[in-house]
Amino acid sequence: xxxxxxxxxxxxxxxxxxxxxxxxxxxxxxxxxxxxxxxxxxxxxxxxxxxxxxxxxxxxxxxxxxxxxxxxxxxxxxxxxxxxxxxxxxxxxxxxxxxxxxxxxxxxxxxxxxxxxxxxxxxxxxxxxxxxxxxxxxxxxxxxxxxxxxxxxxxxxxxxxxxxxxxxxxxxxxxxxxxxxxxxxxxxxxxxxxxxxxxxxxxxxxxxxxxxxxxxxxxxxxxxxxxxxxxxxxxxxxxxxxxxxxxxxxxxxxxxxxxxxxxxxxxxxxxxxxxxxxxxxxxxxxxxxxxxxxxxxxxxxxxxxxxxxxxxxxxxxxxxxxxxxxxxxxxxxxxxxxxxxxxxxxxxxxxxxxxxxxxxxxxxxxxxxxxxxxxxxxxxxxxxxxxxxxxxxxxxxxxxxxxxxxxxxxxxxxxxxxxxxxxxxxxxxxxxxxxxxxxxxxxxxxxxxxxxxxx
Length: 455
Hints:
Elements: E1 4-9, E2 15-16, E3 32-37, H1 73-78, E4 88-93, H2 99-111, E5 117-121, H3 126-136, E6 143-147, H4 151-161, E7 165-169, H5 186-203, E8 207-212, H6 224-228, E9 231-236, E10 243-251, E11 259-265, E12 268-271, H7 275-280, E13 290-297, E14 300-312, E15 320-323, H8 327-340, E16 348-354, H9 366-378, E17 386-388, E18 391-392, E19 398-399, H10 404-413, E20 418-422, E21 436-440, H11 443-451
Parallel strand pairs: 4-8, 4-9, 5-6, 5-7, 7-8, 15-16, 17-20, 20-21
Antiparallel strand pairs: 1-2, 1-3, 9-10, 10-11, 11-12, 13-14, 14-16, 18-19
Helix pairs in contact: 8-9, 9-11
């Protein structure tokens, strides 16, 4: 049989017999690339061959596999307590954000424990990696480096060396010799990613696949690549901020939406063990429009400052802008304040910001947002050492949230002496008897207690 030409969407993997301007599956424009498909050498069915025999789940013996601790606590936290043996982790991030630097430091920590580790680079030569490793003080005899892009040769190296951890930098540069398409195409990424996963499961070696991201912020390549791996991590960098956030999107062996905070320095990436202090380090006390909210990122509590600015609009249509928060949620909360509190916000521009560049998606910050807006509108500052959290409903009620004890304990640890929270919140033991817990049922009562409003 002869080879045939197909056109593959580089965004979602949709295949078409002819070139198309717009992908009918994902709707992206100008993403089709020509690829040559060669038929399999054997078209006969596999007669007489059997696959693996099914085994009752109750008969399978479980070996307690211990996770590999890297020595970088923030990195181990995102993975769920360390590197799981025989796991495949996909890590995405923008160019220059520090992915290669982070994993060079991770491998160096592992090598200092006496573990042999392998760093496979398809972008930098060994000399370039050596210069960067010297700057990071990450030079070790147990850290092996190789420049290679052909999958077959990398697989042979892994089998011969049998390292304890492997990093592939990056998956977009790898290619199979048997596929005619160029490196970085959908076919190459899908096939090399799947084969690296099979090698990891067969040999019991954890493999990290570093991937580039598209303009939209998604990992380049087919979505199936994220389904093949055990964990997906995104390396994020808020604009004009020196810190980096490593966020877990998928994790088969640990919690999702866990984050790790790092700071980029001249000597590499340094872990931030107290993110609450980082996000609140520049807070100005007794300023209207500022309130502190204990929010949860995975299993970690963080104190984040919510800022609001309410000012008369100069146009016919008032602006509603949110940075780090859901703008649709902001419009909902403004409507609640207008309806339930009678606040005349129809001619006011409202700007809300989560200080520090952190993106917050949970609804527990609702009460903090409405408090910040009311504080800015009435020019009344929130008490200096008071934290606020709770979900706000359309009827103006304050609804309960999860892990209230953890949020309160974080506020106590950071020196706060009071917290306004939902009335139905189950608070068990508070370690500080002088800490005041003010429970509220609706927004009106909450603003009375926080700002001293009489209406």
